[in-house]
Amino acid sequence: MKKFGILLLALAGSCAPTPPNGEMVAKEQAKFAELTAGKAAGAPMSCLPAWRRDDMVVVDDQTIAFRNVGSTVYVNHMQSPCSGIEHGRNTLVWKSTSANMCHGDIAEIFDTGARITVGSCVFGDFVPYEPVRG
Questions:
Q1: Residue 87 to residue 39: CA distance in whole angstroms
Q2: Distance CA 130, CA 38 (A)
Q3: 8 has a pLDDT exceeding 50
Q4: SS3 assignment, position 92
Q5: Residue 117 gets which letter from DSSP?
Q6: β partners of residue 56
Q7: Which of 72, 84, 82, 125 lies closest to 101, judged by CA?
Q8: Would residue 11 count as lying in a domain?
Q9: pLDDT digits (tens, 9 = 90+) for 37-71
Q10: Tally of structural domains, the chain
């Protein structure tokens, strides 16, 4: 019986997620800094009007930014990771009953090559980053 317990612990340990390496974290931080350079965070918004969905930028598997035609960037820290969203063939498919993207809406990660859903995640609040006027 002891051998079985040890085997289970070994298997559980092998399934533990590996922490991101320092190079990847630095790259994600640089991408976020570039998107928000010269901008200040505003009050979080629970919804983002659909017309502002133009230019989605994946910062990391839990942070997605939306740039509109103007200079405001809306950053969403997802409530759950969108694992695999950074893969080149994957895209985010948002499903909602309204024309707005809102806190709590579910987004699916769609593999455009295989044409299947490979995961899902949930939107958090949208934080606008607007240019600092000086």
A1: 28
A2: 8
A3: no
A4: strand
A5: E
A6: 66
A7: 125
A8: no
A9: 999 999 999 998 765 445 888 898 899 998 876 78
A10: 1
